[in-house]
Amino acid sequence: MRSQMESWSRRDFVTALGGLGLAGLVTATAGATDGAAPSRASLGLLRDTSVLDWSAVRQQFLLEGGFGCPRTCTTPPMTLADIPRPTPAQLAWQDLELGMFIHFAPNLRYGPDGRLIEVPPSEINPAELDAEQWVDVAAAMGAEYVVFVAKHCDGFIFWQSDTTDHGVASTPWRDGRGDILADLSDSCRKRGMKLGVYLSPADWQFGATVSGKSATDEEQRAYDEVYRAQLREVLSRYGEMMEVWFDGSVVAEVGDILRELAPNAMVFQSRYATIRWVGNEEGIAPEPAWNAVRSDAEPAMYGVYTAADGDPDGDVWLPNECDARIRRDWLWTPENHVTLKSLDQLMEMYYQSVGRGGVLLLNNTPDLTGRIPEADARRSAEFGAEIRRRFSQSIAETRGEGKRVRLTLGRPSEIDHVMIMEDVRRGERVREYVVEGLVGDEWRELSRGTAIGHKKIDRFEPATVSEVRLTATQSAGKPIVRRLAVFAVNAAPPAPVAEEAEAFETVARWVIAEDDRGSHRMEADLGPVCREASQYEVVFHAAAGEVTVSRVELAIDGTEANRFVRHGTEPGTYLVSITAVGPETLLRATLRGADSSGEVLVRPVVSLSKPDPDPKPSKSGAEPREAHR
Q1: 374-391 vs 343-351: helix crossing angle, rounded to 10
Q2: The predicted structure's pLDDT at residue 386
Q3: Is it the case that residue 66 has pLDDT exceeding 90?
Q4: What is the dihedral of CA 55, 60, 66, 70, to 10 degrees?
């Protein structure tokens, strides 16, 4: 089984290779889920005992198709040598730390009800569009890469495509000959800025909904052909892409195109994912935010993992990307300038994303002229300058290995931040840690935590210390610290606040009579609560009697989306990931339990703690608003 094979060690693969023989192994791959066999090169790497980065070899092997596993296969236990590690491309991506999303949609407007409406192409003419200005804003912010939304769910194309006329080719802008993706690619290349592309699998023009699903098999085959052609265009005509976004995953087969045209690109969602959505659009990673996931988990088939799937004992490296908005909305509107985030808000976002080991992808949206508004550009530059002010120069830093790493400052100095980075080339090993400072002759605790991974930034009240020590109180093997640095930021930490979960809201009720021994099929409309692309906790709360829940299914705009539902930590609880909110979001379930009554409760996930043992519902009169990413 593929899920078993994904956790095999080098020894297990070598054993399989020896049993099947190379030719037999290649033959065995004919039944791989993506229809592709692994290359002889990757099979050779499996035999090469000199290869140290075994997890990277395994990940490449899986990307190339893996191989079928006999029914007699078992899953061997993981060893220290099998702690997942990033591929070189993943490691380079995590080192970027900050990127800029660009949602540009002169073809869309928010209607009075908050839903998106399309604008005729004849009305689209962003005469002042300047991709150089976009890249200037990204550079001033400190971003190392840009991800451009080349096609969103409405299907409007921002490049010259052979697949459809619904795009810039049908507008008066540059007499229909403009190509925004080409302009942006040229500007990024000049500035040394890396470029990524968002290509929506959903497409209203072709009737394709979430993940690019069509209503019939015939329509699916036709749209898959179109989508694959569009993917080939954006990956082959505009230079190297360092990231490819399949928002909501994708049902079309894209593995062969990725291998051919973007072998080093980070992939957001799909079964070829190399990074994952953090699970909200606020730029906030949980604490802890582990880099690894389990390959046999429920989201594996579609690559829709989120931070909630982080597992320190997982077997696949899949780091978090934290997408967020500099304004309230993803798209520009004449009114939402008042929602421009403050510098303090952006810095809090930075601490809770990059400071927790994630990569922050912050959206800027050009207005109808094609330029990023000056206020947004200034705030982006202020954000970049403040990051540099705080962290460009440490007071002292070191690196080291082992349970304890010490940093001598030379003379007593006041510090208020510590930055820790593991050398994740050897895996994420620290499970718990404490940081102490030597104040006079006494060691005083400054901070403590769990996950470090790529980076952890801890804030604390200023302390004058002559030495700092990092102690890994729990670890998987010997910790390897890439960087231990201390700073005097002179920015007071936020006042402590009680972390309270969002209140539950009731979206449906049920009653099963005492003489009803059969099943009760019910439906709950999640729309009034699920107003943003985020993760939501669903609880089937029995007020009377007992109930057993099964066959929980999700439908978005009439399209099956069960891959976005998984079991929670307690019976009767579920985690639902909403990547885009449409007109209709329905949850269906089968309930069993005579003489039972209760409610279906929903709330946004704000922490990864276990749900309340006896959650109480609350009411909300808020009107739904369509989320749009």
Answers
A1: 50
A2: 98
A3: no
A4: -20
Residue whose structure tokens are 């109808």: 368
Q: What mean pLDDT do residues 445-466 have?
A: 97
Candidate from 42-46, 244-248, 412-416 with smallest mean pLDDT: 42-46
Signed CA dihedral, 297, 299, 300, 303: sign only: negative
- Evaluate whether 148 touches 103 at the Cβ level (below 8 Å): no
The backbone torsions φ and ψ at residue 122, rounded to the nearest 5 degrees and listed phi first, read -65, -15
In 479-490, which positions are buried (b, 16+ CB within 10 angstroms) versus exposed (e)? bbbbebbbbebe
DSSP β-bridge partners for residue 549? 591
Does a cis peptide bond (omega within 30 degrees of 0) precede residue 496?
Answer: no
In terms of C-beta density within 10 A (0-12 exposed, 13-18 middle, 19 or more buried), how is residue 571 classed?
exposed
| pLDDT value of residue 494 | 62
Query: Pick the residue with more confidence: 4 or 531?
Result: 531
Burial of 216 per CB tally in 10 Å (0-12, 13-18, 19+): exposed
What's at 110, amino acid-wise? Y
Dig out the tokens for 406 from the structure. 């010490």
The stretch 414-425 carries a mean pLDDT of 98
C-beta atoms surrounding 73 within 10 Å: 14
Size (the chain), residues? 629
Question: Tokens in use for 194?
Answer: 């890396």
Q: Which amino acid is at 359?
A: V
Q: Diameter of the chain by CA atoms? A: 79
pTM: 0.83
Tracing tokens 């007499």 back to the chain, one arrives at 175
Closest C-alpha among 194, 200, 1 to residue 108: 200
Q: Which pLDDT belongs to residue 227? A: 98
| Helices marked H in 355-503 | 374-391
> In angstroms, rounded to a whole number, what is the distance separating the alpha carbons of residues 599 and 617?
8
pLDDT digits (tens, 9 = 90+) for 211-259: 999 999 999 999 999 999 999 999 999 999 999 999 999 999 999 999 9
- Using an 8 Å Cβ cutoff, are 12 and 76 in contact? yes
Sheet holding 145-151, edge to edge: 266-268, 243-245, 194-199, 145-151, 98-102, 359-364, 320-325, 276-277
**High-pLDDT (> 70) share of the chain, %:** 80
Is residue 449 packed enough to be buried (19+ CB in 10 Å), middle (13-18) or exposed (0-12)?
middle
